[in-house]
Specification:
It contains 13 helices and no strands. The longest helix is centred in the middle third of the chain and has 31 residues. About 2% of the residues have low confidence.
Length: 338
């Protein structure tokens, strides 16, 4: 395994850890409703930090966008908008099927669609190579791990007797989760199909590690739109605008801003790692990023006591799923080695 590959996988792994940890500070913001903390995250993670980092790391950002073709700009923004719809559906889906099952199902679909579809569309000749077969096999192994995590989530919900969701609502929740996973994969589509922006950033003097930032910034700006609209809808519906001043605002506001920094920091590091993985970095790196993201979120859940009181069966399913996801990373990494 060459040095660039090791470095790329290490950076993508760090990105997954950061991204999977972004919601941890929200557990300390119990005095706020979801829409309050999520709106603060959306502003910091999807608008403020992306544009600050973009201007700080890419010379002549305005020139990069001005020189890019209109089709590229439109595709990146629209993919971001669709990703934002997926992230909004995420909250609706997990409220119906449970956090564990919803998280595993949505990110599993996101990882699969976000890597295999671009490979089939842009590099169909690679499907039968060592890389392509390893990606397909690794994705299949990953799906098996997600099945175990879903079983763990269902077992935990049964143990705690908190899954009193009507069958029809649960079925609707599954449909919502499926669409959320499909739409959420659009973020990686923007990275792959918006490569013109990365190349123009390089021509403008940006480093290879930071050249993808114009793509991410435009993508998450598009994603901000549905997140903002949904939060405002809930704030008006639930009359929770005043909640921003309740609880412990002096601690909640920095924690909310931290969620945005952790999340977008993970995105930036993913772009750095994917760039180090070569031409198929955005395809090979995506399932690794998503897998580590899932594992990190599960570990934070365990640390925060989400699995307290769970049965031995639930814990066995959970750690078996984590182990299988790690195996999926190994399979994909080995196939990409040259």
């Amino acid at each position: 395994m060459n040095q660039a590959l090791v470095w790329g996988i290490a950076v993508v792994t760090l990105a997954g850890i950061l991204n999977g940890s972004f919601a941890a500070p929200m557990k300390k913001m119990s005095g706020w409703r979801w829409e309050n903390s999520w709106l603060l995250f959306a502003f910091s993670g999807l608008i403020v930090f992306p544009w600050i980092i973009n201007f700080a790391t890419v010379p002549n950002v305005a020139g990069v966008y001005a020189a890019a073709s209109s089709p590229t700009l439109i595709k990146v923004f629209l993919f971001g908008l669709l990703w934002g719809v997926g992230s909004t559906l995420f909250g609706l889906g997990i409220s119906r099927v449970g956090m564990a099952l919803g998280f595993a199902l949505i990110l599993g679909i996101t990882a699969s669609f976000g890597s295999l579809l671009p490979l089939a569309i842009l590099h169909s000749e690679q499907l039968t190579t060592k890389r392509g077969l390893a990606l397909i096999a690794g994705t299949a192994v990953m799906v098996l791990g997600l099945v175990f995590l879903a079983l763990a989530g269902r077992a935990r919900e049964h143990d705690s007797q908190t899954s009193g969701v009507a069958r029809s609502s649960f079925a609707i929740g599954l449909v919502i989760c499926i669409f959320s996973g499909i739409f959420s994969s659009m973020m990686n589509f923007s990275f792959i199909f918006g490569d013109e922006l990365r190349l123009r950033a390089l021509q403008s003097g940006a480093s290879n590690a930071m050249a993808a930032n114009p793509i991410w910034t435009l993508t998450v700006t598009g994603g901000f739109v549905p997140n903002f609209l949904y939060c405002v809808y809930l704030l008006n519906k639930n009359r929770t605008w005043s909640v921003f001043g309740e609880g412990n605002p002096s601690a909640y506001w920095p924690l909310g801003i931290l969620t945005g920094l952790l999340w977008f920091g993970g995105i930036v590091f993913y772009g750095m790692g994917a760039a180090s993985l070569g031409d198929l970095g955005g395809i090979v790196g995506w399932p690794i990023f998503m897998t580590v993201d899932i594992i990190a979120a599960l570990l934070w859940g365990a640390v925060s006591g989400e699995w307290k009181g769970a049965s031995r069966r639930a814990l066995i399913y959970n750690w078996a799923g984590v182990g299988i996801l790690l195996l999926a990373i190994a399979v994909i990494s080995a196939g990409n080695a040259s």
